[in-house]
Amino acid sequence: MPEKLNKAFSGMKGIDNLDGGLPMPKAKSSIASRIFSGRYIYLMMLPGMAYFIVFKYAPMWMLGIAFQDYNPFVGMAGSSWVGLKHFISLFQDSYFFIMLRNTLMINILNLIFYFPVPIVLALLLNEVRHEKFKKINQTIFYFPHFLSWVIVASLTYFLLSVDVGAINKALSTMGMPTVSFLSNPKYFWIILTIQSIWKESGWGTIVFLAAIASVDMEQYEAAVIDGAGRFKRILCITLPAIMPTVITLLLLQLGNIASVGFEQVLLMSNPLVNSVAEVFDTYSYRIGIQQSNISFGTAVNIFKGLVGFAFVWTSNRAVKKLGFEGIY
Amino acid sequence: MLSRKTGMTVSDWAIYSAVAIVSLIGVLPFVYVLSISFTDPDAYMPFKFYFFPEQWSLKSYRYILSTNSFMNSLMSTAFITVAGTAINLAVTLPFAYGLTKRHVPGYRLIHTMVIITLFFSAGMIPTYLVVRNLGLLNSQWALILSAMTSAWDVVIISTFYQSIPPTLEEAARIDGCNDLGVFLKVALPLSMPVIATFTLFFAVRHWNTYFNALIYISDTKKWTLQLLVKQLVIDADASGVGQSSGNDAAPPQETLRMASVVLSMLPIMCVYPFLQKHFAKGVMIGSVKG
Q1: What structural domains and CATH numbers belong to chain A?
Q2: Model-level ipTM above the cut of 0.90
Q3: pTM greater than 0.90
């Protein structure tokens, strides 16, 4: 009896395959023959699989070294196990709360000052009727996204440095005292925020523009007939239309609260602003790779990874709960 | 309040000028850097504020392009970008296509393996150790192989392939194509906009690689442009951090530094306008839905 059921089941699978995929397997296709008929698919996926195993899963296995005193000369097998030693010293590290604070502050400033900018820009762009003007400005808006953080940091130095920065040159030309923007901890977070706005907010409009584009034009026409002005139309039609996107992105952004644009921080930090610049990734890099304290660096890595995972997972859940599509 | 000639209202003017001002803010840093890079280095006065060169010259560019360090890193970066992008496409496209075939045994396992890496990554140190154990340290292949594909790219491209009508593939299959043939003759030609978009993304990603190059490449002959620019601009400046502008401590060759920044953005600036019309479409395919 069970065998019959089984057969019926595999037969049904064969019928399923009609809409896409392989030539329909015979009703009695065994797992072996299904694997064989998928051989070209496996072939196509082989290099990608190899990548994920070697560069994503082998490192995950290597995470064990966070619980060891890793000695590079004897490898993971020969190093001694020390349990949670490195995690305990991370929590007792005087930098721990500094890093936590910096990570939170950089993200909160981003949420407050960066997050609304793409929405406003998208609403503005949407009101532009002149197609060519719109295209030109979109091209300019998107461009900084494609520059590296090295370039963005370089531009920042050219503008803000004490000796050669354009702003300080302008200040001293006007007879005012110069300001050391880059070495004063007071300015560090806000410089990061401005950089993020400059680099990414134009690119961020794409998602909102797409959401706006899906609004039915008839709604606007009806609103015009009802005598709604432009502002009213934005407020009552466009804004509600992009609200799901706004909420989704807000939640996803909250999910990313444990991570900070690592290259950006690394490039902008210098010894004088270290107290406001150090975050988990930069610390892990300095301790683990520069000072070769591999096990402790990995422990920092894991801690940040776990906290990050918890946030991302929760926010993704929340997005799905609200009925929107999450990140996958 | 319609102005007779253009049909623009007051609120139109306000919106257009707001957009134009935002664009101007975006462009100003480039204009500043470009104009100083074209200033004659001999006539350049470090403490004076310029916005437009008083004496135009190509000296800075000529000098930079004659140095070994710049040419080496240019060649190195070009190699990484070309080889890396080709490998990205060759690995990611078939993998993403395979991921749409849910009936193949093992689909669930492979799909889960990819999705997990969206949420959790081992981080820099274990990855660094794997690269070191593979003997790739100090080789450009470390940068190419360690960024061969990514879960994000796979998921987005795979969503696109799912939108191909099954009847098209069925037709090719009746003509005697196997899965590989269907991919090459049906799926690939249909995905040209996606390929254009991702070619740009991959190329830009390789061209802009900084941190991986920092930890994997120590031989200055194999340095990437980003490493070189960072050293020329930021390290040179950071050495002066803290000391307020001493008169004799003027950092030299500012025009050179700006010219090197311009040169390292140049390829992106050249390619970008041509691919721009594709990517807004391409990036929305399957990514975030409103």
Answers
A1: 2-81 (no CATH), 85-321 (1.10.3720.10)
A2: no
A3: no
